[in-house]
Write a structure and sequence with these properties.
258 residues, Phosphorylase Kinase, domain 1, 22% strand
Length: 258
């Protein structure tokens, strides 16, 4: 791969703007480049933070002095877009600063299937740690629209998708969101717990061969992964190995074999 993985190319990759041929080429290059993988992960984390930070409820108390500086050059609805623009600028500046830190040259080792899988699980864990802190915006589509969630995410994954009932484990289905990793859709089903952080079940396209369930740690939390019939299944959250195994059994009954 001779194409340089500059920030514009990586941003297009993260935003799903590449055609299938470009996507395959860039995906392989990212898999071999730890520096690029860090940048991609950081772009996704910043994107998630921006979506949260730029919501209506996040900037209700912008200082009047700052508003007055921008007011002469704008028209209504300035109280809507000025706070969002400020948030976006701050977060973008933060990313640029971080990008300078990680802009070093690394040897590019050959990466196999296991390494690609580990990179995916690390990014899912990173996403979960960001979204699990949300309250009002924990999910994209609420549980009250479960039939729509099953149809919507099932169509994205070209399969029938049934939301697992985990109420016997003290977990309430809160809703779902659609993630994009490596240009591929990832269905994320989110469950809340009493006096504990939420947990999530993720489904995406996987490997052809069957991979038995394995629990690893990413970013300080347990992540369970298994693969069957071309689909990958992930359970992620602040759970003990015993609790995560019980959860996997329940998920297995609805989604796929562990």
């Amino acid at each position: 791969m001779n194409q340089r993985l500059d920030d514009a190319t990586l941003a297009a990759y993260v935003d799903g703007e590449l055609d299938p041929d470009q996507l395959r080429e860039i995906e392989q290059a990212v898999a071999r480049d730890p520096d690029a993988r860090r940048k991609v992960r950081r772009m996704r984390e910043v994107g998630a933070l921006m979506r949260s930070a730029c919501s209506e409820a996040s900037f209700q108390n912008v200082p009047d002095a700052l508003i007055q500086l921008a007011r002469p050059c704008c028209r209504k609805p300035w109280r809507v877009w000025i706070p969002r623009a400020l948030a976006a600028s701050i977060l973008l500046a933060s990313f640029i600063g971080i990008d300078f830190v990680v802009d070093t040259h690394w040897k590019k080792p050959e990466i196999g299937t296991v390494e690609l899988r580990e990179a995916m699980l690390d990014e899912i864990a990173a996403y979960h740690l960001v979204y699990a802190r949300e309250r009002e915006h924990l999910v994209e589509v609420p549980a009250s629209r479960q039939p729509h969630i099953e149809q919507w995410l099932g169509s994205r994954l070209n399969r029938k998708l049934s939301v697992p009932d985990l109420s016997s484990l003290g977990m309430r289905f809160e809703g779902a969101r659609l993630l994009v990793l490596g240009g591929h859709p990832v269905a994320q089903l989110v469950y809340s717990r009493d006096r504990a952080e939420p947990v999530a079940v993720c489904v995406t396209f996987g490997e052809i061969q069957k991979v038995p369930m394995e629990i690893t740690q990413h970013r300080g939390i347990n992540v369970a992964y298994w693969n069957e019939d071309g689909y990958a299944y992930v359970v992620v959250g602040a759970l003990t190995e015993d609790a995560i195994q019980h959860m996997v059994v329940k998920v297995d009954n609805s989604l796929g074999g562990a």
